[in-house]
Design brief:
This protein has about 55 residues and is an all-beta fold. Helices cover about 0% and strands about 60% of the residues. The strands form two sheets. The chain has a three-stranded antiparallel β-sheet, with no helix packed on it. Strands 2-3 form a two-stranded antiparallel sheet. A hairpin with an 8-residue loop joins strand 2 (about 10-20) and strand 3.
Length: about 55
Amino acid sequence: MAIQTLNIKDQATQAMKLSPAPFIPAMSFPISNETGLDIKVTIDGKNIRIQKQ
């Protein structure tokens, strides 16, 4: 599975396509940022990392 990265500004929502298993087609999930900071969301296999920018 490839590493996916998404940068989300404060108070914004962006869609990220994720596939829960290799044989299931990817679905788009909205990710909202309400932290007060710009964030970077990184998905690497089953690991999700959220970092401030």
